[in-house]
Amino acid sequence: MINEFSASTTGTDVEYLEVFGTPSADYSEYWLLEIEGDTTGAGLVDEVIQVGSTDSLGLWVSRLLPNALENGTLTLLLVRGFSGALNQDLDANNDGILDQTPWAAVVDAVAVNDGGIGDLTYGPTLGPNFDGLSSFPPGGASRIPDGLDSDNPSDWARNDFDLAGIPGYIGTPIEGEALNTPGAPNQLYVPPPPGGTCGDPVVYIHQIQGSGAVFDPAFGGVQSVEAVVTAIAPGLGGLYIQEEPVDADADPMTSEGLFVYLGEAPDPSLAVGDLVRVTGTVTEYVTSGGASSQTELAGSPIVTACGQGAAIPPAAVMFPLLDTAELEAVEGMVVSLPQALVISEYYNFDRYGEVVVSLPPEGWDRLYTPTAVVEPGQDAIDLAADYATRRITIDDARSAQNPDPAIHPGNGLEFTLDNRFRGGDTIAGIAGVIDHTFGLYRLQPTTYGTYGVVNPRPESPDPVGGNVRVATMNVLNYFLTLDDSGPICGPDQDLECRGADDAEELERQRAKLLDALARIEGDVVGLVEMENTPGVEPAADLVAGLNDLVGGGTYAFIDTGIIGTDAIRVGLIYKPAVVRPVGDFAILDSSVDARFLDDKNRPVLAQTFEDRASGERFTVAVNHLKSKGSPCDDVGDPDLGDGQGNCNLTRTAAAEALVDWLSSDPTGSGDGRYLIIGDLNSYDKEDPIDTLLAGGYTDLVGAFGGELAYSYVFDGQLGYLDYALASADLVSTVTGATVWHINADEPDLLDYDTTFKQPAQDALYEPNAFRSSDHDPVIVGLDLEAPQLRVRVEPQVLWPANHRYVRVVAKVKATDNEGSPEVRLVSATSNEPDDGVADGSTTNDIVILDDRTFLL
């Protein structure tokens, strides 16, 4: 049969006819005829070619001179036993039916019709667009596969007009066309990957990355690279690749890695370690308003596997960095973090699966808010700049929010109640790929390292001593009115509510707070962030819950009603068996002192209590000063950039007013023993705290907890915003102070809120004290009960009266609620004065030998 033909091609026609039959067979009794098909010349024999013997493939080819075959409409006939002649007209009347058939048989036929009016063909016809590929007729065609014959045009595929397949010609084949293969098996054109074939010319990744923050524009646009797959990240819609070591350059500032953004999970047949060819558009993925920019290959990249790639050893990244540009130089590359880095920030762990780790300065266990350890100003600014070289975010290679399962950043396993972490724990030896997205350099892990439990949960607060315990606790917007109720909260019931969104969340929140308060065992507890709506009393609700837990009547509350104009206020609960309120409570707000802006700060609540055991009095002032989170520009108090944040002057003025107000004895206590507690929203080196210290108060958290005490974590940095400050008259009674770290070190995935959690993460909830709030409670011990002392001496009478020394022994029994007190013998007296008149003219009548013995 006719297997392939070429009649019309680009340039000078390359013409041939091919017959397919039995391999190595003699077909000399067969003839190929070209029959004219154009209008009046139709039926004329234009070419007569005798067939010869086939080769081992069953193919016989006749290579013709240019223009041997018509470029228009024609029919090719394969006949046996031809007896006619060249130029014989076989269709004299041009009716499309051959009048003469000078052969024994027609074995095969194929025709081309160029669409001319009146043209005729005499076999299965391939016309313009017969295959849906072109409006032109084929210049040549091939049976696909060889030897297929159903007498239908679908047996044929047009050959590439531009001679693809002929040596020396590149051609312009498209999918669906055949290559020109005279004397060889017919072949459909298979388009190579749009990115080319493995081994074709490429650019290097370091050329694209360049040494700057964005790609080198000389290597922008569509580019092809060949590199090794280092990480497959379906959660990010792509994969990471890196140049083989032999192809890397010597410039340490040019990255050898790239992210390939596919917009979907990579082909599952790809694996880490594969050498791939990638063709895509070089782009910068800019996020967070330009705070981060990652060089990528995007624009529907074409990825072709090229075999096994060379091993890619991770580059070690050591902290502190000389400059954050060091991370830009390894963007997209595999790195390892060999140092033991501290888990510092986990605010986004629930929503985005990320944590921040850091290398603290020498001698520190964590990063501390600059103004918690150095003075505001240049020292704080410099320390913040140093921190930027000590931290990096560990992500989870997923862009979806609220991921399930949550992944433990230290070991890569699912985060569960039995596989938790806390702030201060360590991660060492983790490896992964660096990316630069959403404002941060991140490690997308490929190999997890060693997780160290450094900061286990404290099941109870450290002892503080004393006979009265005073505590302060932020109750994290404890609202009895649900947050989805609309703007019905606040004193005028026109503010948005906060806290729990539904009844289930409220139950979960309440259970956690009650467990924390019960374990604190405070005799007086200041509560911060309670709902401030008429007729709603969160303190009463907490007291009822506590009494259900620890016994009826154990706790009571100071009934203040609404305080101030904000949606939240402070409050007080107490144990009536231990202390009793004395007199009315007092409020510090703008009406008392104009320096105290109560539309910024929450009003202060002060109440005097009397210790029932000793009758001693003290006054507790509960505070919640203006936060740093929103500006005070409307009162001329902007963030000055010195580390103290927004509203520093507002808080400082409030502190000045507080000192003066307490010195006026606002509750009429008649006693100078004051304890300032609550959330002052100021770190201990900031101006508001300096003001309180200058006013004669002692910072008990700092005094007992040291320079690195903390109650809160913000931006991966520790410090304390929650205070207990004792007046000069009270400080001598303080036996201890502690911060119970049940909240600041816990990821909020464990809190009551279900907003950013899948059902599996909701199930991690426990009705216990841990992550009951975002601030840690502060607890202070006061010893208001004087030691009890009983003394008896032997002998009680000196006799005889001879003025000789008698050894006197004191038998002492001393008791105190703080344990065994130290007893010292300071002096002794008798009914006669020492060295008195008429005492026998002796001197040193009383001689103290030790703390229990003297001579008299």
Automatic annotation (TrEMBL):
The cross-references to InterPro entries, in alphabetical order and at most eight, read: Endo/exonu/phosph_ase_sf, Endo/exonuclease/phosphatase, ExeM-like
One MF term from GO for this chain?
catalytic activity
Q: Which residues form a coiled coil?
A: none
The UniProt entry, under SUPFAM superfamilies, shows: DNase I-like
> Where in the numbering of this chain does the Endonuclease/exonuclease/phosphatase domain appear?
500-775
What CDD domains does the annotation carry? Answer: MnuA_DNase1-like, YhcR_OBF_like
Matching entries from Pfam families are given as: Exo_endo_phos
Name under which the protein is recorded: Extracellular nuclease
Organism, by scientific name, is sediment metagenome
